[in-house]
Amino acid sequence: MTLDLHRFLPYRIDRLSDAVSRHFSDVYRDAHAMARPEWKVFAHLGQEESLTAREIVRRTGLHKTKVSRAVASLEKRRWIARSRDDDDRRIEHLSLTKLGSSHYDRLTDRMREREVGLLEQLSDGEREAVDDALAILERVMKPDR
């Protein structure tokens, strides 16, 4: 049996993931001089009050070295801050600063605008079908584990 690469699901998802990433990357890259790992860390911190680097590694799938570099870069910009855990001083919690929150709000507004532009190209039924298919694949693949 021959593998039809253009119908092979992992290949199609990988290509689509790259295309979507490129479509959105100029928003964080050009306007905020952020690399993809920085964006991923920043986005996750914008969703939560605070996270540890270990939690970010688990949620993003990034290697701990990439998370560490992204954290250092964001910290240098004063967009995130570290705080020690009250119960375990070895643990550091990361959170957005006031300046970071301001940049996060502007950046996510632009990302949402870009998403709307993309989704407007689909019918209501197509948007629903894409959302359903992604939910099914996420359930089956369990990416957060």
Automatic annotation (TrEMBL):
**Record domain HTH marR-type: where:** 6-142
So which domain of life are we looking at? Bacteria
Fetch the InterPro entries from UniProt.
HTH_MarR-typ (IPR000835), Metal_resp_HTH_trans_reg (IPR052067), WH-like_DNA-bd_sf (IPR036388), WH_DNA-bd_sf (IPR036390)
Name a GO molecular-function annotation.
Answer: DNA binding
What keywords appear on the UniProt entry? DNA-binding, Transcription, Transcription regulation
The record ties this protein, via SUPFAM superfamilies, to: Winged helix' DNA-binding domain
Instruction: Extract the PANTHER family matched here.
Output: HTH-TYPE TRANSCRIPTIONAL REGULATOR PCHR
Q: Write the protein's name.
A: MarR family transcriptional regulator
State the organism's lineage. Bacteria, Pseudomonadati, Pseudomonadota, Alphaproteobacteria, Hyphomicrobiales
